[in-house]
Amino acid sequence: MSQTDHEVAEGLRILIADDSPDAIAQMSSWIHERWPSAALLSAVTPEDAVETASEARIENIILDLDFGAQRWSGVVVARKVLEARVLEARPKGKHLRTRILFRTVHAGDPGYLHQVEKLITEERRQPAVWGFLDKGSVPKRLAQNTVEQVFIYELSFTDIFAKQLKISPLRDLSDLEFTVLIYICLGLTNEGIGWRIGASRQSVERIISALYRKMKIPARREAPQGVPTLLESRTRICYEAIIRGWVNPHLLREEDVAMRDVIKNSIPSPSRLYINPDWLENGRIDS
User: Fold this and answer.
1) Which alpha helices (H) appear in the chain, and where do they start and end?
2) Which whole-number Å values give the CA distances from 206 to 171, 172, 192, in the listed order?
3) What is the CA radius of gyration of the chain?
4) For the chain, which domains are there?
5) Is the pLDDT reported for residue 90 higher than 90?
6) What is the average pLDDT score of the chain?
7) Among 122, 43, 117, which Cα is nearest to 82's?
8) Which residues, listed in sequence order, are joined to residue 99 by a DSSP beta bridge?
9) Within a 10 A sphere around the Cβ of 130, how many other Cβ atoms?
10) pLDDT digits (tens, 9 = 90+) for 192-248
11) What is the reported pTM?
């Protein structure tokens, strides 16, 4: 390692957050091979990742996207860390930089791509620098070079993300269609969807018909009159979205929490929509 490498490694502190100890060990060995003096911390749960990043004031984070269906996603961990940075810096008038490198075996999963894309385009909360790596197929040298680019030279590494996003099947859906698809998976009625997107029932029905067509979901109206159909279209669209990876448990949990927050702040007129109070108050899963 050159003298320059020794110099940039001084003070290099990285948190590796992953539910797989083997993945943490692999990344740690790759980093120490290139920067022996780097200080590495680890976390195997999303809660530990948020706590460690906050208490140790870690600005460089390698973050898994999937800690398990019943836990926060890596995107939620990133959002919580970024929120804490904003709250910590505001009273002091300082700007704390946060550099995040997402590393995942779900590099081509449309649902995760959507979550990351949403995070990095948020005006209030976004990493100062960020990167994206495929955990399953990226060679050691590329991983090391990405760490250097993101954490040392502060240049985002988005090649893999941009490539996956370009070929994602969700590119065939408009943002509005994908939003409606999520609401269908969350169980919203057409009236509920209309209230959320500010559209009439007829407009919602047209959007859903377009989804059926694009996703090749058989419509009940295609059956002969008086003959029951085997498949229920609305249920089938949820199944297809999950099977195709267009949505995942993390995405649905986070969108459900966001919807509850919106409803609590702007509950529709009781004459227009009935909101079950048990669902609203007791069914929340913290994001």
Assistant:
1) 3-9, 21-34, 46-55, 74-89, 110-120, 140-147, 159-167, 175-185, 190-197, 201-214, 233-243, 249-265, 277-282
2) 19, 16, 15
3) 22
4) 3-167 (3.40.50.2300), 173-282 (no CATH)
5) no
6) 87
7) 122
8) 60, 129
9) 22
10) 999 999 999 999 999 999 999 999 988 777 778 888 888 889 999 999 999 998 999
11) 0.79
